[in-house]
Amino acid sequence: EEVINRIAAGEVIQRPANALKELIENSLDPKATNIQLMVKNGGLKLLQIQDNGTGIRKEDFEIVCERFTTSKLREFEDLHKISTYGFRGEALASISHIAHLTITSKTKHDICAYQASFVDSKLQGTPKPVAGNQGTIITVEDLFYNMTVRKKALRSPAEEYQKISEVVSKYAIHNSTVGFALKKSGDNNDIRTPPESNAVENIRIIYGNTIARELIEFSLESTPFKFKVHGYMTNVNYSTKKLQFLLFINHRLVDCQSLKKCVDHVYSTYLPKNMHPFVYLSLELDPGDIDINVHPTKHEVHFFKRRTDYRKYHNCSRDKIVGFKQ
Ligand code: ADP
Ligand code: MG
Q1: By the 8 A CB rule, do 179 and 186 touch?
Q2: Are 180 and 27 spatial neighbours (Cβ–Cβ below 8 Å)?
């Protein structure tokens, strides 16, 4: 049975960047305003995240890592109006099956923090009191230590770190009121955004001034279709070879090949060849119109019904875009 759990866990967590994405979302859910990340060896030796959110109560340590245990979903119907990132209670459980997991946390009601480690979803011993500030520190060590094949299939630590850094960059831009810091152990911060910032400022910090000063803001809202689009894009060539596409749907970082192709198509129609822009797109749709449950990593989103309606907007002309400004 343990092997089955491990395989299932490997589906949810395919590489260090997936684990980190889950952990970042777990920190955003309890309203952290500061998130600090530390990584060793591309995340394989260490992934650590510290937040200043509401914390985990000592009595909840017993169950936080049990599969399908979540504090976020109350009724099945809630699935259609999920406002938190987490809802399946799978991330911590999965991580505990394929890594050494330690949680340190303090709520505002406790006088000290508590720390415990977890193996295969189970709390080891009882949480021990330690010093600490309000919030949570999740430490993930030796990811895939018991999955040698998976470990071998990964890219180099440098490339895995690159993927981690992309995830952090995107979340920092989309959640610009939260301060993010990412570093490799021993090094200085690679990414550092202040709390109470804004998307443009964070794009400047992370992707540089060349892109930031070319940004064009756009927003589009439709009450009948119940959707909102907001974002920034550039018209100029961006130094990397391909389209830099940051896509959030209902605040989830997702991949959507069809939408990406569509954006690429628009650019290749209106711009000279080989112009690869930077596009940051945030879509808010009626949660009933999309399925975020299609893949264990929650990384892909499917659109339900109304597809044709959205397609009308694929060809929308510039003057339909409200708040278009340079
Ligand atoms: P989910 O996010 O789907 O609920 P997870 O396995 O990611 O499931 O987390 C399990 C539970 O652990 C969460 O529902 C939450 O109660 C708690 N938790 C995890 N990370 C944090 C954190 N950084 N701060 C506070 N609570 C947390
Ligand atoms: Mg979660």
Answers
A1: no
A2: no
CA distances for 1 relative to 8, 66, 221, 317, angstroms = 11, 15, 49, 55
Placement of tokens 């009308």 in the chain: 312
What is the C-alpha end-to-end distance of the chain, expressed in Å?
Answer: 57
Q: How far is the CA of 271 from the centre of ligand 2 (A)?
A: 40
Segment 119-127 shows an average pLDDT of: 95
Q: How many CB atoms lie within 10 A of CB 236?
A: 14
ipTM tops 0.95: yes
Q: What is the CATH number of domain 2-193?
A: 3.30.565.10
Binding-site residues, ligand 1, Cβ < 6 A: 22, 26-27, 30, 51, 53-56, 64, 70-72, 86-93, 136
pLDDT exceeds 50 at position 264:
yes
Distance CA 294, CA 289 (A): 13
Q: Which fold has domain 209-325?
A: Ribosomal Protein S5; domain 2 (3.30.230)
Q: Which of 25-34, 89-98, 186-195, 302-311 has the lowest mean pLDDT?
A: 302-311
